[in-house]
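Moderator note: this is an archived Q&A kept for reference. The question asked for a predicted structure of one protein chain; the sequence and the answer are reproduced below.
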Amino acid sequence: MQPLRGLLVLFAAARAELRVPSAPTDALLEIVGGDSVEVAWAPPLSDGGAAVQSYQVEWDTNPGVAEVQTVTTSTYLGANELQTIRTFGKDVDEIQLVRTLARPHREEQWVTATAPAGSTLAGTFALALDTRPTGGTLQYTGAIPASAAACCGRTSVLAMVEALQNVGLGMVTKVKREDVSVDGRAGFQWQIQFNETLADLPQLQVLDASGLTLGSTVTVATETEGNAISGTFRLTFGGDTTALIAADATAGEVEDALELLDTVTDVTVVRGDAQPFGGFSWWVTFVHDDQGGDQPLLTPVYEGTLLGLSGDPWVETSEVRAGNTLSGSFNVSFAGVDGVHPGTTVIQHDATAEDVVEALTRLPGVPTGTVAVSRSGPDPENGYVWTVSFLDDAERTWEKDLGDDFDFEIASTANLIGVDARAKIEVFREGTMKEIQLLNVTRGGGNDTKNDYFYLEFGGQITGKIFAASDPKTGKCGDAVPEVQRISSRTVDTTASGGDAAVSPRTTFRLGYGRETTGYIYAANGGDCSVAGAKIKSELEALDAFYEVAVASSATLGSHECDWDVTFSTTAGNLDQLSISVSRDAAGPEDGPSSSAQAGDDTMTVATTTEGRTDIVQSELEALSTIGRVTVSVESAGVKDDGSEGIEWLEKRRTGTCLYRVTFDTNAGDLPMIAICGDPNCAVNHRSNVDGQGVQNFQRGVPDLEYVTEPYPQSQSFATINEGGVFTDSDTTLTVDAVADLPGLADNSYIRVGSEIMLVTAIANTNDLTVTRGQSGTTAAAHANGAVVDLLTQSTVATSDITAGAATVNVALNTGGLGAAPKSYIRIGKEVMLVSSISTNALTVTRAQDGTTAATHAIGATVHLLRESTLAAAITTTTATSFDVDLNTAGLGAVVNDFILVGSEVMLVTKVATNTLTVTRGQDGTTATTHADEAKVYLLQSSTQQVKATYALPQPESTLDNSGVLAASANTLTLAAGGVAALGAVANSFIKIDNEIIKVGGVSGTTDLTGLIRAQDSTADVEHANGVKAYRLPQTTIATGNAGTNGGATGDTDVDVTLNTAALDAAVNSYIRIGSEV
């Protein structure tokens, strides 16, 4: 069906002025029938100069099908850490001097006074100097005697002329008097020479000669004009030349002339006072980043335009201060998981991205192909930023375990040249940590292994039966087998018919896997099979399907026949067989792809010699729809295993124990635990014919490791509840024992009781606080009388939203709220900011610190004070025990016995004096090292990431201060000052010193633990050195009493323990373990 068409008719009185009308402002369409529609429209805003009578209407009866596109999001869990290497220097603006100069020519004027013939010159006369035309004044001398001396007297000519205010003292350099006689007239002539700074002076005038002998005359003549600069000049910069600049141009005029150049963005100009002969000096400062660093010198152009009365003037330019430009090189080291820096590498200040990749991979611990680099810059000081991406490789080099860091560090900037030249490395984005869970499986006793099996449950789905028995002779676990495929070349002996008996040197082949194909490979290579073997390896590893393969070559002498055994060491399971295609010289007819292909009398084949087999745990887990891809590595205990592999929370394993390390490669986030079951319905967890199996959460996964605010919010001060009873979960008036114990507390302060955060909205009757319950995602709960009330370092964004470019943050309350000071670090959302100054609740900040990104923050967003600072100067030795931080109070917040982290080194604070910290270096197994100026310093909640008891959370700790060793069997110990409070130990608490677990009988004072029961949990009663760590463990025992009421029966849901607070520390939603049951 043809579209309906109407007729468009336009009428106009004068066609030359008609324009296309605009569209109708509205249109209505109604379908009348299968082949007609009715259209009505509203007039257009412009009719083009004539009334619109009709529009053409097109009707499409087949509009087609709307396209639907699906957008799928996923989380990438591979190696994705980004670190930046940055060079920078002080912002020093270039200053250049432009001067107009001339050679010295002093003005000389002669004054002659004579009397008529026969008369003697006597009496007085007066002179005048009029500098009004050049902005000066009209001045008169006093009466000058007819025989006045040249100088040195009050009435001398020198004194009289210098007394003129428009000449001035010292401005006459010389006066000479001579007797003159002309045509019978006799008298005197004074030759007056002026200082060169007066340049070109107007000529002196005779003011009055009536006081001389009758008929006497006085004349003035200029013998030598003073040099005075006039005219114009130009300046050239970067090949661009200014318009004419007047010789006496103002600073603004010179500035405008330069900024009109395409090569100049912004300068400031200062003009000096006038110099001799009318010359000037202009100081030009290049203030824009476009002209950062050392700039080319301005070039003057003045020939024929710059003028002088007595001699040729000129323009001179010079560099007063060079702009800062970096050059030279710096050194980088690399610290792997062990924190060791085995060497350094040199990077040039302007190295290309490729140069940096080559330099970094020279470092031990950085395999070739595992980093990529991009470069940006230079900045105004010629600094660059190199962004280093950590890449996947077959060895999973950059996949992080808990607490791992892979940090490049600046080793030296001694050869980096420039004003305050520095280099800095920052973690721009922490690498994602995959979730890792460990399965510890121990087979039952005896030699019969047919019933040693278990099941795994994850996300409500259950695997098939998994047999747990390891090889009792070797102790090996798991049954994963890598695939091996053989590629072979064979030929036919055709020497009897005039041919040959060797594989042709022209025979080429290529391999295929799925949709991917390798490049061509020559098969013979003169009988050296290793040449093609190396090529097979590199070509297969270039395919997306394979990380790494191993190729073993073997040859048949004479025939140049080869066998290549390809082991797919990093690709699990039974693989599809490679295909092969064969041709001559990678051109012409090609046979294949297939498992066997020919070229002439040469045949090449591929065959599977060993079928790959995935570990049974891996294959069973991957069969669950709740799990994507996992990697399972297996460690066997063996008959001699004594648990010395360093994983402290594992019990000493016995013969036949297998440790399965399960890495979730595609499941993102903090995942639920895998459960071990003893039956196919998982009705009985953690119990079967397998003895002692358990699941421990070795590393909790996170979708993306964010900036660590550990911990926040902080407590500024504390009081206690004084309600005379329970403070209920609905009460909004909280009475404390003393508001004075919470200095700065005010409306908009945040307080914390237990795990609940509250907002203070009013303070009445001295100690009564009106509060809004359950803030910052916490839940209102009942709190006991006497519970601690903490004043928190927390506030909210006030007044208005914060844009990404704003430099001021208004908070609801700083003093008594956020508690920030200049040099404090704060965090809003994911962005960290540095506070530079404070006016009440208005904070001036530097945005996007610590590798975070400036973002918009809404009014009401939470603002936290971070416990971190920076070094005020570099720590240049490994033995230094005292250094300054930029801000401690309201910054780092360290006190005696706190642990801090600088780089990868943990230190114990032993003394604090304002911002000066005295420390003990290299704590918790870290190594003392040097640290650069401005290195970040973090306050640690705990000095250790080691796992104690059965899980990995840091525990309260202190150190032994026993004035000697803690002897075996000793039942009392002394901790460092305040150690009892730091450890939080009470009677029935359990503590751990080295590998010994000890039960506490009681406490005495602030440092002593008494009534110690040694060697708990099958540990050994041993001697401990003074200064070692003591940790409080989260464990207790089942309380004595009837087993049926205290957790002994399998159906009980109530468990009475000896001590919870200061021991087990369990709360709602906590998990606990008794024996092998969780």
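Archived answer notes: The mean pLDDT is 81.
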